Amino acid sequence: MNYGISILFRAIPLLMGAVCLSFGWYVFAGGDDAAHRTAGHVLISLTAICIALFTTAAMIIRQLTHTFAPVWKVVLPLVGYGVAAATAVWGLVLRSGPTNADFVAGHVMFGVGLIAACVTTVAVASSAFTLITKNAAGRPEDGPPDEAYGRAVAVGLVCIPAAAAVVLVVWAGILLADSADAPRYVAGHVMIGLAAICASLISLVATVSRQVRNEFGERERWVWSIWVLVMGSAAIVWGLFVLFGSDRGDRIPPGCILIGLGLICFSIISKVFLLASVWRREFALANRVPLIPVFTCLACLFFAAFLAEAATTDPDFFIPARVLTGLGAVCFTLFSIVSILEAGTSKKS
């Protein structure tokens, strides 16, 4: 990989994190009402996902540029998990605040913290990323290479996003059991979308870890991609159901945000699909796969633009218009990750 390009791909997650942080603070400081407080907190928390994606980018790029040292196996996960834990704890503290805005934002921030932890797990799974191309050039019967981590480690890594998804689904169910209460209704639905992202990351962690261990089989080549597609589609369909299934005013923020979270899942598809497509085969369109998160980014931003205009006459659109802008930044960050994967695995890159 060209050194200048490697710097750019590592800079993109940090730049998008800066966008989320600065925009979140700008929104938070823009007013004392519930909408500014909720949207501001959520936008700031999205910075954690961008930082976690930076750890993944740095972990892979340092291997591709031959500047990787064992210390990075410790430093980068510590950064990612540290930011994820801080975000989750901040959310737990905030949810106990005196206002409904704190209750909703706190629950969402906790879920964002879990997603950041799952993304950091992708970085950990990628700590032996260069073995993927080595294994792809070999035979299935060669077995796991000596340099790969053990089966127990691989299973443990997959369990992290699985556990996060279960926690979010269960918590969402508890909240929605009393959906007549508006804050619980909003927080519960958004947490379902966050759970879909964690569930999608199961596929990415499993694909990376199984290819590192030379255990990725032909029968599962497209299974993981289909799983992510189902999660993303479910989030979007659920968002549409929330939007059009009732006439309650508080349906607009969770419904719109669920659609944005579904687009995040579709961005994750690009990585899972790319790794499956180039495993022991050539894929002529590999260098086009990074366009997927670009399209989802644009979809989030255009959707946010329409919602921002709608917010001038209906304040219920204020929060999703701001949050979807942050989700667009996350999608663009995912563009850098899939571009790195394409550079490191594709024979056509």
UniProtKB/TrEMBL annotation:
InterPro entries: DUF2776 (IPR021240). The keyword Transmembrane applies. Keywords: Membrane, Transmembrane, Transmembrane helix. It comes from Microbacterium lushaniae. Pfam families: DUF2776. This is DUF2776 domain-containing protein. The keyword Transmembrane helix applies. It comes from the Bacteria. The chain crosses the membrane at residues 7-28, 40-62, 74-93, 105-132, 152-174, 186-209, 221-245, 257-279, 291-311, 317-341.
